[in-house]
C-alpha cells in the first residue's frame, strides 16, 4: 500500500514538473519572466523550507518575507506559494511517510480529501483579483497565527497514541482535511491546523508529520497545475524557491533533524500577525484608490 501511495505521488509530481518547466521555458523565450532577485528568492526558499521540515510551516513565513522585501506582487502570492513549495514538500512527504507509521485507510482518505479540496479551491483562487487575494490572505494569516498561538499556549489537546481513526472521528478528519486543502490554495498553510486536528482527534503527535506533509504533497501538484495554466504565479520566484527550498529540506531532515524552536515560533506568530495587518491595509488602500478615481 505504501509503495502505491508513493508511486502515485511520484507520478503526480512528475506531471506537475513537466507542466511547470514547459511554462517557464515558454515564458523565458517570450521575455515574460519576472524581475525578481533570484538569489534573494532562493534564500527565502531555503530558509522557510528548512524550518518547514522541522514543523514550523512555510506559507505564512514566506508570505511575510515576500511582503517585507517586496519580492513579488500580492496578486500572485497564493499561486507562487503553491507552485514553489510543491517539490520541496513532496520531498518532505517521501521522507516522513517512509519512516513514521500511519494506519493506511486514515492516511489515504485524508490525503485524498485534501487533494480534492485543493483542486476545488485553486479553480476559484486563481481567478480572484488582487484586492480579494489581499483580504483573503489577511484573514488566512490571522487564522494561522491564532492556531499557532493556541498551540503555544497549550490550549489544544496534547494528542494521544493512536496511529489511525475509525467511525465518526475518521469522517471528521476527512471533512476537515477537505476544507484545509481548499483553504491552502489561498495561502493558509495546512501544517498548523492539520497538526491541531490530529491532536484533537487523539492521534500521536508523530503521526501529524506524514499526514500534514503527505496531504500537502498530494494536493499541491494538483492545485499548482491550475495556477500554472492560469498564469497566476511568479515563475522566477517559483523556480528559485523550488531549487533552494529542496536543498533546505534535505539539510533539515538528514543533518540538523531538530532545533529548539519555541522562541522561533513566537517570532513567527508576531511576523504573521504583522503581515496579516499589512495585507488588510493594502486592500483598503486599493479600495480607497478606486473610490477616489470614481469621484474624480
TrEMBL record:
Q: What is this protein called?
A: Probable membrane transporter protein
Q: Which family does it belong to?
A: Belongs to the 4-toluene sulfonate uptake permease (TSUP) (TC 2.A.102) family.
Provide the topology term for how it sits in the membrane: Multi-pass membrane protein
Q: What is the lineage of its organism?
A: Bacteria, Bacillati, Bacillota, Clostridia, Eubacteriales
Q: Does the keyword Cell membrane apply?
A: yes
**ATP-binding: is it a keyword of this entry?**
no
- Main localization, broad class: membrane
What does the UniProt keyword field contain?
Cell membrane, Membrane, Transmembrane, Transmembrane helix
Q: Name one Pfam family in it.
A: TauE
Subcellular location, in the record's words? Cell membrane; Membrane
Q: Which organism is it from?
A: Caloramator quimbayensis
Transmembrane intervals? 6-25, 37-60, 80-100, 107-125, 137-156, 168-201, 207-225, 237-257, 263-280
